[in-house]
Design brief:
This protein is of the alpha/beta class. It folds into three domains: 81 residues, Winged helix-like DNA-binding domain superfamily/Winged helix DNA-binding domain (Arc Repressor Mutant, subunit A), CATH 1.10.10.10; 55 residues, no CATH class; 178 residues, Vaccinia Virus protein VP39 (Rossmann fold, 3-Layer(aba) Sandwich), CATH 3.40.50. Helix content is 48%, strand content 16%. The chain has 18 helices and twelve strands. Strands 6-5-4-7-8-12-11 form a seven-stranded mixed beta sheet, with helices on both faces. The chain has a three-stranded antiparallel beta sheet with strand order 1-3-2. Strand 2 and strand 3 form a beta hairpin. Helix 2 packs across helix 6, helix 6 crosses helix 11 and helix 10 crosses helix 11. The longest helix has 22 residues.
Length: 354
């Protein structure tokens, strides 16, 4: 009986630890925002070697009384893989170095994701998730309608500061594309024209145009998004609505677009894509860059990232999809063949043919 009671107690304490870890999950993002706002990745990068706690505190120009908090925040971030932490042999003072994650937060680099951190940790945007219960019980289609009285796209259109924040975050994410292009050149080779649907300010299209100078690319987005944007000989901007029509091209690119929408709207978008490439016969295709959930084969951290994104997308009435779910959408939109290339970290490139 005693051993059974001990086992039950142990299970309860393990459950308690798990619950407290979940309850404190928001501290991962708030401490990450703290590091970005204080410019700590830049400070370590500019130091050219691991930086001591005393040097970090001095560079930050904060009161000496706050030094202990810097040490504790950095310990927490290091435990979560954002920084490396070691003790200096001569005096055991902590030293900090960048990891593969914090290297993505160095300002001015080609792969800086700090704008994405600021978007995802914005106090107003994250506060909407405190209304998940109210939204689930109510009739609003999206969480943002419950929180703001309007959907997220109308909210961005009415608040220029947030629209700018969103565009900067999306542009920072698109800069990773050039890292993957070398592994998928065959996807773009042989194309004469491409439409980047929902391409925003054109960061993705510019990267592709630079890599494939003969390719003519159109960035197609809402009129207020592309207004006053300047193109080049091979890059142009057109305003419109993807639910009405999409300009004709050899290929249509949908980067991080379809996960914003439910299946019904995804099918409508893909049908317009099919119309766009229909005159190209076998040459025409749709190129999708989005997540493909695979809980059995993916690394647990990758699965966590994908499932977390699925929660975010649910607030917009969108979703992340498994291959089975993608296939269902493709078939209903009139496409017969597809190929999946898992080469974008937690996202994949999907080639789709009619």
């Amino acid at each position: 009986m005693g051993s059974m009671n001990n086992q039950n107690a142990m299970e309860l304490f393990e459950g308690q630890a798990l619950l407290y870890m979940q309850l404190q999950g928001h501290l991962r993002t708030t401490c990450l925002k703290w590091a970005v706002q204080l410019g700590i990745p830049d400070i370590i990068q500019n130091h050219s070697k691991p930086i001591t706690l005393s040097n970090l505190v001095s560079t930050l120009q904060i009161p000496p009384s706050k030094a202990c908090f810097v040490q504790r925040f950095m310990r927490f971030l290091a435990h979560n893989g954002i920084f490396d932490i070691h003790e200096r042999q001569e005096d055991h003072e902590p030293t900090y170095a960048l990891t593969s994650a914090s290297k993505l937060l160095v300002s001015g680099s080609d792969h800086c994701l700090s704008p994405m951190v600021l978007l995802k940790t914005d106090q107003l945007l994250t506060s909407t998730f405190h209304q998940l219960g109210e939204w689930t019980r109510g009739e609003d289609a999206t969480l943002y309608e419950t929180a703001f009285g309007t959907n997220i796209w109308e909210f961005f259109e009415k608040t220029p500061a947030y629209f700018s924040l969103f565009n900067e975050a999306m542009a920072s994410d698109s800069l990773k594309l050039n890292l993957a292009l070398k592994n998928c050149t065959s996807v773009f080779e042989g194309l004469d024209s491409m439409v980047d649907v929902g391409g925003g300010t054109g960061t993705t299209a510019r990267i592709i145009c630079d890599a494939f100078p003969k390719l003519k690319c159109v960035v197609f987005d809402l009129p207020h998004v592309v207004a006053n944007l300047l193109g080049t000989n091979h890059l142009s901007f057109i305003g419109g609505d993807m639910f009405n029509s999409i300009p004709q091209a050899d290929a249509v690119l949908l980067k991080w677009i379809l996960h914003n929408w439910n299946d019904e709207n995804c099918i409508k978008i893909l049908e317009k894509c099919r119309d766009s490439i229909s005159s190209k016969g076998n040459k025409g295709k749709v190129i999708i860059i989005d997540a493909v959930i695979n809980e059995k084969l993916d690394d647990p951290d990758v699965t966590q990232a994908k499932l977390g994104l699925d929660i975010i997308m649910s607030a917009m009435n969108g979703k992340e999809r498994s291959e089975k779910e993608w296939k269902q959408v493709f078939m209903e939109a009139g496409f017969k063949h597809y190929k999946i290339f898992p080469i974008f970290g937690f996202r994949s490139l999907i080639e789709l043919y009619a």
